[in-house]
């Protein structure tokens, strides 16, 4: 489930004034002989109504299934503020859908204790009703930009076809335990004329550099024959329509998988790319969440890993994979950040349909020496 600030709450307004106490037998079986609706001193949440709203908002979770079904509306939850001040016997009086009803109940039941209601100076059980309103988040509009992605001739579908179903090099035998076709990730530049250059497969650093940076990569280099075939396929690419910035053609860098078999459905780009829901984008979010592993600090291990992931048609992150490794502990920390509470994207759209696209994101771990 995902937390959304657009799930907001309206509390019933209860005024305290001198009046005769009213008690009634509960409509459903209750642990209390009688539950009051009005007493001389009504229950008060610590900090007042504003604090009550904040406490509920902190406990509300908009169910993912409700978001996907675009469910919204108001749930009326009735409960008893017990003589101890605890919330008891919460139930939905009225609600638009079971998913939202249950989310509202869970939040109300988790509230801390109230200052209980009192009649003649004695704490008594008092009925309390509060409506909880679920409102769908507004669609996130893509940020205006003067940058245009480069375009492969025929679009992303043609690019996927070009880079998939490659024949295995002569003599190559895939590992017996392989569960998918082999693939090699290759970086390259599309220059301002659309020509592909600077082709280089993604693989561990040379041994001398790995030793200098204390790296212990867990992802081995691709088979040499596969690597050569993948680089040759990229080098043979036809000319692209180059990227444009402020109306001027510019060079751009890319990393694409070359698959020796059937490729997955993810596209390299789409008519409308996914929109990350936080300012600063994925890189700033990752930078705020990353913690340098203690073991890596002790061993002075540093370097840049590369992560592959797909943004699914519903905006969720799937198929996360390290494609360039630094060390087990650094890889694990990067994976933790992407697997734990990673925000849901506004999904890509291609040819007016939700689309799955992949990203390849570098994450750098660098130890900065402090100088006096």
UniProtKB/TrEMBL annotation:
Coiled coil ranges: none
CC per GO annotation: plasma membrane protein complex
Stated membrane topology is: Single-pass membrane protein
What would be an example GO MF term here? energy transducer activity
Provenance organism: Hymenobacter amundsenii
Q: What InterPro entries does UniProt report for this protein, alphabetically?
A: TonB-dependent_transducer (IPR051045), TonB/TolA_C (IPR006260), TonB_C (IPR037682)
Q: What is its main location?
A: membrane
Q: Which UniProt keywords apply?
A: Cell inner membrane, Cell membrane, Membrane, Protein transport, Signal, Transmembrane, Transmembrane helix, Transport
NCBIfam families membership: tonB_Cterm
Q: Which residues are the signal sequence here?
A: 1-23
Q: Which residues cross the membrane?
A: none
TonB C-terminal domain residues: 47-143, 277-372
Where in or outside the cell?
Cell inner membrane
* This protein's name: TonB C-terminal domain-containing protein
Family under the similarity heading: Belongs to the TonB family.
SUPFAM superfamilies per the record? Answer: TolA/TonB C-terminal domain
Q: Does the keyword Cell membrane apply?
A: yes
**Pfam families associated with the record:** TonB_C (PF03544)
Instruction: Extract one GO BP annotation from the record.
Output: protein transport
């Amino acid at each position: 489930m995902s937390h959304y600030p657009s799930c907001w709450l309206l509390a019933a307004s209860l005024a305290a004034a001198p009046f005769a106490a009213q008690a009634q037998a509960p409509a459903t079986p209750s642990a209390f002989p009688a539950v009051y609706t009005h007493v001389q001193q009504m229950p008060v949440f610590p900090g007042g109504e504003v604090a009550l709203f904040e406490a509920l908002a902190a406990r509300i979770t908009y169910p993912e299934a409700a978001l996907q079904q675009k469910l919204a509306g108001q749930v009326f939850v009735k409960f008893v503020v017990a003589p101890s001040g605890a919330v008891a016997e919460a139930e939905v009086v009225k609600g638009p859908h079971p998913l939202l009803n249950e989310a509202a109940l869970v939040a109300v039941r988790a509230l801390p204790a109230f200052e209980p209601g009192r009649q003649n100076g004695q704490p008594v059980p008092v009925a309390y009703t509060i409506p909880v309103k679920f409102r769908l988040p507004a669609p996130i509009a893509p940020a205006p930009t003067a940058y245009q992605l480069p375009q492969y001739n025929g679009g992303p579908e043609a690019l996927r076809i070009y880079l998939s179903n490659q024949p295995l090099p002569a003599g190559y035998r895939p590992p017996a335990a392989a569960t998918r076709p082999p693939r090699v990730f290759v970086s390259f530049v599309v220059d301002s004329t659309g020509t592909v250059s600077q082709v280089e497969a993604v693989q561990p650093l040379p041994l001398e550099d790995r030793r200098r940076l204390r790296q212990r990569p867990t992802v081995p280099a691709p088979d040499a024959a596969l690597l050569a075939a993948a680089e040759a396929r990229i080098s043979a690419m036809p000319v692209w329509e180059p990227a444009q910035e402020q109306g001027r053609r510019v060079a751009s860098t890319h990393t694409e998988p070359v698959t020796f078999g059937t490729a997955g459905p993810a596209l390299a780009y789409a008519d409308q790319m996914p929109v990350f829901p936080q300012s600063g984008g994925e890189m700033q979010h990752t930078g705020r969440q990353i913690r340098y592993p203690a073991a890596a600090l002790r061993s002075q291990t540093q370097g840049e890993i590369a992560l592959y992931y797909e943004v699914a048609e519903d905006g969720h992150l799937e198929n996360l994979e390290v494609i360039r490794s630094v060390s087990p502990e650094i890889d694990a920390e990067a994976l933790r950040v992407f697997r734990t509470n990673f925000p849901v994207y506004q999904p890509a759209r291609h040819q007016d349909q939700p689309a799955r696209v992949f990203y390849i994101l570098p994450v750098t771990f660098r130890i900065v020496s402090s100088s006096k």
